[in-house]
Structures are given as C-alpha cells and as structure tokens.
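In line with agreed milestones, work has continued on tokenised descriptions of protein folds. One protein thus recorded appears below exactly as we store it:

>
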Amino acid sequence: MSERDASPTSRRTLREEQRPRSRWLWPIALTAVVLVAAGVVGWQWAPFGLAPADRTPVPTVTEDAVTPVAALAAGTCLAEFSSPWDATFVPIDCAQPHVAEQYAVVPVASQFSGEVWPGVDALSDRAMLACQAADALNLDAAGQVAGLMIEARWPSSQAEWDAGVRDYRCFAVTLGSDLVGSLAAG
C-alpha cells in the first residue's frame, strides 16, 4: 500500500510517526552545537583560570651538590627548600631561577650580649629582627618579589649553643614564583 492509497487516518498516523523523530532532531542538534561552543570557549578561557604549570627545569642533584647547612655561605641560592631546619641543601647559581636563598648569616650577638644561652624562645623572638635588618636583606629587591617569605634558623638547643652554633641563618623563600639573582644586602 502506497501513501496515496492510504486513507487520511492512516496518512496522519504515518506523519505522526515521522514527526517525533524530526521534532527531537533540532533540539539534539542545537544542544550539540551549544556544547561544542561551550567547550571551545572553555578551552580558550582555561589559561586565565588555572595556575600555569611549573616549567622551570629542576636541576639534577648529585651527592656532591648536597651541602650541610653549616657550610652554606650568605648569598647561597637553593634549588629546593622545604624548611630552614633541613640538615642539607642543594646550592644553585643565583643567576638561575631558584626557590630560596640563604641570604644572610647573622651572629646572635647582634641581638644578645654575653655567652649565656638565651633560650629557644628568646632566640626565636628576635630571629625576624635579625633577618630583616637592612644590613642582612636587600629590602628594595625583596619588596619587588611577590609572595616572598622570610624564614630563619637559630641554635635550637643549649647543646648546639655549647658546640659553637651562634648564628641566625636567614632564608628568603618564594611561593609560586622563582627568584633570579640574590637578595643579600650589598
């Protein structure tokens, strides 16, 4: 039976069967186009909402490169940093991007007089005064570094003090950016 031979009732039924497919075709196609467009726009805008990936090459660390904290000089730049209390560090050329620097070694005598152990609380209370002094830190250069944090290390026990550890070790550390050059006072 052809469509012409079909009665009006059967034609209507045939058309009604075809309509649901065409009725859903346009909304599905429109939804697909909107999703593709949203994906393209999201892909274009993604760099503005995500932190950039760290593309700084990480230097290869050898046993010779690891240096005990006591051997670090003022102005030593560091490839890695987790805490001023680490026993060893990996020095790197300050011309290379780096995450931290031991910019000063300040004698405790700059804050205390005498040979008597001042105690951990007294040493920690004055650590930032010693490390943020103009003769320790290049304040102009430090003010230009976003996210800069100053961390300090001091003799942590009377045993260290009695063994001759009498310095504050001052570290400049960055979050999310790299330092280039030194922050040590001139």
Q: What stands out?
A: Confidence is low (pLDDT under 50) at residues 46-63. Helices lie at 8-49, 120-131, 139-142, 158-162.
